[in-house]
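S.,

Sequence below, as promised.
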Amino acid sequence: MRRRTGAIPYGWWAAVLVAALLCGGAGWSYARTAGDEDRSYAEARDTALATGRRHLAVLNSLDPTRAEAGRGAWLEVSAGELREELRKDRSSPDVSVRATVTDAALTAFDHRAGTARLIATVRVETTASASDRKRLEAELLRTSDGWKVTALTTVPAAGVREEGER
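The prediction came back faster than expected:
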């Protein structure tokens, strides 16, 4: 049997055909899911969670030497009644307060209504070398400017006893 020089073996053609079919199938699958409702929902949920985490850190931080800038940041990340309360509040801490969200999760999310509820654990540090942990619950609203915090409450830790309790 003589080999033809310059000819491509049939095995290579089969491999090229299989590769083309696999690439085409992957492209079709990606194009089909690009407008997928589940994907859109998941992206919106992830955005709400990430934005809520950042906003809680802002709302629990304040440097008394830059109090007006800090209050301005509070107003940027809030909406509704919470924003009005923050606008009226002119108190300022004696020490600098910096918050870090250590953990957070959405407990409710309505993509169509543009609302979410977030719970978070926040570590609060002061310039007085004090550190405290808070558990917070926040209500979020999607606005034309993105997600904003509309309510913020402290959540008591389950199983933690108050002083004097048995």
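The chain has a mean pLDDT of 88.

Coffee later?
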